[in-house]
Amino acid sequence: MSLQDRAKAMAKNIEGKIQETVGDLTGDNKQKAEGKAKQMEAKVMNTVEDVKDRAKKLID
To answer: Where in the sequence does UniProt note compositional bias of the Basic and acidic residues kind (predicted)?
Structure first.
């Protein structure tokens, strides 16, 4: 697992949450949807890292 990749995923998730909140507060549905998409992207990034970790453990 790359700690750097995990940090990128966390940053993407936070960015998405902020963007979703701003969209919610301003009534901008596009902004809100983009924020949710970033959060989903972060979740996928974390899942990929989890798979990498498990594969490495199996190999070692």
So the answer is: 27-41
